[in-house]
Amino acid sequence: MKRTTYAEPYKIKMVEPLRNISRRERERLVKLAGYNTFQVKAEDVYIDLLTDSGTGAMSDRQWAGLMMGDESYSGSRNFYHLEAAVHQYYGYKYMVPTHQGRGAEHLIARLLIKPGMYVPGNMYFTSTRLHQELAGGVFEDVIIDEAHDPDSTFPFKGNVDLQKLENLINKVGAANIAYLSLATTVNMAGGQPISLENMKQVRKLTEQHNIRIIHDMARVAENAYMIQQLEPGYADKTVAAITKEICSLTDGAVMSGKKDALVNIGGMMAINDQGLYEEAKNLVVVYEGMHTYGGMAGRDMEAMAIGIAESVDEAHISSRVHQVHYLGAQLREAGIPIVNPVGTHGVYINAAAFLPHIPQVKFPAQALTVALYEEGGVRSVERGIVSAGRNKETGDHHYPSLELVRLAIPRRVYTLSHLDVVAETAINVFEKRYDVPGLEMVFEPKYMRFFQARFEQVVGEPQRMPG
Ligand code: F0G
């Protein structure tokens, strides 16, 4: 039978009721929250697209796995299951569990970065760059220019610009490069994949200079799926096989298990070098926990082992990305400026184009997250100047070329009907966009300010576009 309709590849066994409060109530609450969606209580949110991290729904098998948790302090059976899953699906030789991705980032940064060293990467991620900087490293963006252009429709905007990488190597010397931090997919660029062809070229160049590649693999299965869909020569390969091939081109990895691996908490660091593994094993004890649990409960390691297997299931991954693209298509058709192509874990609205009357220093993306919450109870996240933080040297803001709002879709949580409501909310705000006021930051924390910063609305300035 030829089918033109589409349905999620699961049925719902347990439901969690949603609460939808009034617009007036939301206006009051978001003001109390300092106009920061991270500070809003989850129960005051109707549809929560703040993040796809740790917010997924576990399968019945994962829940069953929780009951098989072995909470022994050392040598829990679940650790060996997780280790086996990492070998089987990713191929890395050694791994230590961590409480989540940034625990692994901390370990790798401490292990490989000496003060003053450079860490090139295909764009930055907030926690990743911070750990590099805290270890004394200097981040250098080597992603292709297309990634910084929300209108470029290049299919692999996560690719590394080989020329930029080579220029850096020539400028500072390979010995001063700690490692290449390579993300699959690139979150801050809009959830954009990297191609295997590019990865192979990058591998060739870094091998010539003896530079390690550390893989930020939170969303590796989604990247593998996009390769299967778009890269010539991969249409007949399984997502599982492509995932393993990606990993084989790198020397180690940091992983947040809270994304593709479908757990609410957990992560791991992997490495192929035995000497570095011994060091990591020792360091994890200091910062996370014994190397056979590293900050995770036995039951959570079991759920992650099962989640890793489910993440590369073809029906799961195609449905997951379909949901994201379904929402993206609705926004695009309504004329809302979004990052193209639509990525794999969320739809990114180009807030600079959506709110052209708000200059970047008045935080247009942050202002748009507020408007979406007030309008429809939809929670999103700022990925622009607030997230980018300050330049350590000058003390001024970083001024990222992308001023975005991310609508991140949790895995297996919402149906297409929820996404219709999200689209309607965004369209309603778009119709009255010139009424959305800019913001002033009135409290700024030192690290990762976007989580806890507080804002006030800019009143008294003309908000409407002239004419
Ligand atoms: N790397 C990438 C690409 C990420 O997206 C994240 C988390 C991390 C590392 C850190 O992992 O949260 O488990 O410590 N991203 C979340 C997000 C927070 O909302 O995109 P973590």
Compact summary:
The protein is an alpha/beta fold and 467 residues long. Helices cover 39% and strands 12% of the residues. It has two domains: 23-52 and 314-457, Aspartate Aminotransferase, domain 1; 60-311, Type I PLP-dependent aspartate aminotransferase-like (Major domain) (Aspartate Aminotransferase, domain 2, 3-Layer(aba) Sandwich), CATH 3.40.640.10.
Question: Care to describe what's here?
Answer:
The protein is of the alpha/beta class. The protein folds into 2 domains: 23-52 and 314-457, Aspartate Aminotransferase, domain 1; 60-311, Aspartate Aminotransferase, domain 2, CATH 3.40.640. Helices cover 39% and strands 12% of the residues. It contains 16 helices and 14 strands. It has helices spanning 23-32, 60-66, 77-90, 101-112, 126-134, 162-172, 196-208, 220-230, 239-248, 274-287, 298-311, 314-333, 351-354, 364-376, 385-388, 416-431; strands at 47-48, 94-98, 118-121, 138-141, 180-183, 213-216, 252-256, 267-271, 346-350, 378-379, 381-383, 404-408, 439-443, 454-457. The strands form 5 sheets. A 5-stranded mixed β-sheet has the order 2-8-7-6-5, sandwiched between helices. β3 (118-121), α5 (126-134) and β4 (138-141) form a beta-alpha-beta unit. α8 crosses α9 (239-248) and α12 runs parallel beside α16. The radius of gyration is 22 Å and the shape is globular. Ligand F0G binds next to α4 and α5.
* CATH fold label of the largest domain: Aspartate Aminotransferase, domain 2
Enumerate the spans where pLDDT stays under 50 for 5 or more consecutive residues: none
The SSE string, one letter per element, is HEHHEHEHEHEHEHHEEHHHEHHEEHEHEE
Strand count: 14
CATH hierarchy, class of the largest domain: Alpha Beta
Q: Give the class from helix and strand content and strand pairing.
A: alpha/beta
Instruction: Report the total helices.
Output: 16
Which distinct ligands sit in these coordinates? Answer: ligand F0G
- Widest sheet: strand order? 2-8-7-6-5
Shape: globular
The largest sheet is:
5 strands, mixed
Give the overall pLDDT as a whole number: 96
Tell me the Rg in angstroms.
22 Å
* Total domain count: 2
What portion of residues is helical? 25-40%
Beta percentage is 5-15%
